[in-house]
Amino acid sequence: MDRKEIKQTLIVIGLIMVFFPLFINGLMFFRIWPVAGDVNTWISFLGTFWGAVIGGVIAGVLTLVGVRMTIKNQFIKEFSEKLPEQLMNLEDVIAVIKKQNSVLNMNEYIDNPQIIRGIMQKTIEILKVDGLLKKTTTVNLQTYTAVRQLNDYLNDSLYPLKSSLYTETEVKKMFKKCLETLNAEHSLMMKDIQRYENKAK
């Protein structure tokens, strides 16, 4: 429940607690229906009943607020403890992919498949041998998926099961797509930092 829902619930409960006794008292006072038993006994019963209800509601609300605060503080604590490693790993991945993309784009006017192939092989080597692909699993699913798709594309292009050709344009397109996803995730992470820092204050 968010704050708006909690506020609406409390208002409804408050209105019921105020108007229900007045309604019952009105029925007794105007004698619309005959009262079974002593009126004073009924009034005493209602006072005790609604005292218990009000006490229960107050205790429930305080418990709910306490639990929500505990969960929120625990989440912020865990988030802030994991965030530096996630951010560092994401920035490491971005730096490597950006560097390989820059090398690829430096050879924009050189129509040499060997150069492109070398860049692709070096990228695969960095992702697998240097453990960069594994690092993405510590960031989030979107980061891992983007880098994994790039890695699989490069692998399939260099070592196809069937004869196929890759083009420089397609390789650049895959690098660009991967970088766009990684940069978007970096922006979201920075927004999360600001949001949770403000909540922690």
The largest sheet is: none
General form:
rod-shaped
**Number of separate strands:** 0
Estimate percent helicity.
over 70%
Elements, N to C (H/E)? HHHHHH
Portion of residues in beta strands equals: under 5%
State the low-pLDDT regions, or none. none
Radius of gyration: 32 Å
Average pLDDT value? 77
Helix/strand-derived category reads: mainly alpha
Total of DSSP H or I helical runs spanning 4+ residues = 6
**Intertermini distance:** 21 Å
Keywords, please?
mainly alpha, 84% helix, 201 residues
What features would you describe in this structure?
The protein is rod-shaped and about 100 Å long. Helix 1 packs antiparallel against helix 2, helix 2 runs antiparallel to helix 6 and helix 5 runs antiparallel to helix 6. The protein is 84% helix and 0% strand.
Task: List strands and helices in order, with pairings.
Layout lengths: L2 H28 L8 H68 L6 H16 L3 H5 L4 H18 L9 H33 L1
Summarize the structure.
The chain contains 6 helices and no strands. The chain has helices at about 5-30, 40-105, 115-130, 130-135, 140-160, 170-200.
